[in-house]
Structures are given as structure tokens and as C-alpha cells.
Amino acid sequence: MAMAARIRSTYPLFHRVFRSDFSFHTPRSTIHQTLLCSKLSKNYSTASPEKDEKVKVPLALFGGSGNYASALYLAAVKGNALDKVECELLDLVKASKNSQLFSQFTKDLSVPAETRVKAINEICGEAKFSDLTKNFLVILAENGRLRHIESIAKRFVELTMAHKGEVKAIVTSVIPLPPQEEKELKETLQEIIGQGKQVKLEQKIDPSILGGLVVEYGQKVFDMSIKTRARQMEKFLREPINFGSI
């Protein structure tokens, strides 16, 4: 919370940087962007040969966001800064959602790379981010990938949870579950998933399901909502009756 407050305090500074530097533009060639991606892989995905054999991503992630998240994960593990980097990324994502200007800034590719880098350096400095997180965000800024920061952070959290042996389970209900029901549901899921994994329960409120629960974890979905039951009943009632079989 304190870190998020520090990020919010940088908004006036961000306004100044953004407005003063937006007047110039330096094109970024495809070759230069490729070199920067190679730099990311070199700086964050490798260390000594001995360490490379020991540090591996716990999940195989694909796509641009997955590649960036995996590279950052390797660097964070080697730097013993996994929790700190995760906290900083999530704080940045949360703060960006509270600032329309910053959100627009990260998505606007017409903003010069120099402006993006300068703004990120200033914001990370004011928020007292670690050098690892700051350098990673600078590379995203240079490559025009800041617009993917939310998806990168999401994939990074997937890696940190796998690293800790955690399994995220999302339970959707109409109203928040009472503590005792939440406890019982978590214990039931823990029994299903088994030992060696720790269930991390996240509640989600959705009045549209009308009642009941929808539980999701991994690739599995258990839909016990009244909405789904009503649809199934409606489908059953609409099916023609074969009187020949009676």
C-alpha cells in the first residue's frame, strides 16, 4: 500500500515529463528492437553456466508476454528478489489503473521511446523500485511493450505461484462466502489437489449467476450455479418427448 502511494505521488512528475518531451520523435528500427529483445534475453535469462543449469521456469509460457515474464522470473530468482519484483509489478499495474494518463501513455506507440524511458526512470526512482524491476521496465519502454505490462505481470504471477507450489482457485458467488464456508471449500479443494500444492482461494462476485458457486482451478471448471442449472432444465424441457420409448 505504501509503495502504491509512492507511485501515485509521481503522477504530477509524470505529467511534466510527458508534456515536456512529447514534442520530438525518434523512429525505432526493427533491427534495433530485435537487438533490445536479445539484450533482455541476455541480461535476464542467463548468468553463469552453473546457475543456468539450476534455475528453470516452473511453467512453459508462450507468446510475447510469456517470454518477457519468463525472462524476468529467471532474473528475479537468481537475484533472490522474486517476492519484491512481483510486488512492484502488481503495484505498478494497480497504480496505472488509477491513472488514465499513465494507462494511455503505456498504450500509445506514437510516444517517443526516449520519453517512455525517461518517464519510467523517473517513476521507478520516486517509487523506490529495485534496479531489476526498473531495468526490466526500461527495456519494455524501449521496445514499446509497456502496453503489455498487465498481461506480463499476470504471467509472472503464474510463475511465482508455481514456484511456491501454489494453485490458484477462483470461486464465483453472488455474495461473499462466509468465513466458515470459505474454509471448508478451501479444505475440500486441498484434498482434491493433493499434497505438495497449496490452494490459494480468490473470491469473485457475480450476481448474474443467480446463486450457487462456480469453482475454477487449473484447466478445470465446476459450474454449480443456479443460472447454469436453469439453462440445463430449460434445455431438457424443450427437448421433444419420444412417446415410443415410454
Features:
12 helices, ion transport, alpha+beta, four-stranded mixed β-sheet, 246 residues, 61% helix
Helicity range of the residues? 55-70%
Strand content: 5-15%
User: What sequence of helices (H) and strands (E) makes up the elements?
Assistant: HHHHHHHHHHEHEEEH
- Give the overall shape, derived from the CA principal axes: elongated
Structural class: alpha+beta
Poorly predicted regions are 17-38, 44-52
Rg estimate, integer Å? 23 Å
Largest sheet: 4 strands, mixed
The number of distinct helices, counting runs of at least 4 residues, comes to 12
Number of strands: 4
Subunit arrangement of the protein: single chain
Mean pLDDT: 79
Keywords: ATP synthesis, Hydrogen ion transport, Ion transport, Membrane, Transport
Organism: Hibiscus trionum
Protein name: Delta subunit of Mt ATP synthase
GO molecular function: proton-transporting ATP synthase activity, rotational mechanism
Structure, explained:
With 246 residues, the protein is of the alpha+beta class. Helices cover 61% and strands 11% of the residues. The chain is built from twelve helices and four strands; from the N terminus they run ααααααααααβαβββα. The protein has helices spanning 2-8, 11-21, 30-45, 49-54, 63-78, 82-97, 100-107, 113-127, 131-142, 149-164, 179-193, 226-238; strands at residues 166-173, 198-205, 212-217, 220-225. The protein has a four-stranded mixed β-sheet. Helix 2 (11-21) runs antiparallel to helix 8, helix 3 runs parallel beside helix 5 and helix 5 (63-78) crosses helix 10. The longest helix is centred in the N-terminal third of the chain and has 16 residues, at 30-45. It is elongated and about 75 Å long. The termini are far apart.
